[in-house]
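job 3f2a | input accepted
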Amino acid sequence: MSAVRMRMGTGFGYCVVAMLTALVYFQMYLELEACPLCIMQRVVYIGLALLFLIAFLHNPGWLGEKIYAGLVVMTALTGTGVSAWHVRLQNLPEDQVPLCGPGLGYMMEVLSFTEVLQQVFQGSGECADVLWQFLGLSIPGWTLISFLVVVVYGVVILFMKKPVPG
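job 3f2a | predicted structure (166 res):
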């Protein structure tokens, strides 16, 4: 297996584990319902997984790998921003927490995409609830760290030197 495939396969595996953790452990085992911001973070992870999978299947050369790595970094930074916003909502004083709004499914049916994004990022009371913690961090806190790991991984790939033909 080529080094590029190994790196992209590793990234894909990491994203799959993150999604399985969200779906199997948090949603199915602990029976926690995903709020709109959680769903957006999952969408970003699915996008990352697809990027890594496409790069794995493509098995690009040196420049192609840099392009994929740049896309991974930008996508993971998007997830980092969503997670950071979610952590911020969870740490607002109780009197500043937004009221609970309609579910994401309903909003997608009724509102335009930009209106849905605006509503989701305004947050709702359900996004501010801390339903699980480990070592003092909530799920969005761990997701933020997880996205930062992907950012660092992408940056490392991005700045790897071109191998010397030998």
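job 3f2a | The chain has one domain: 3-158.
job 3f2a | closed
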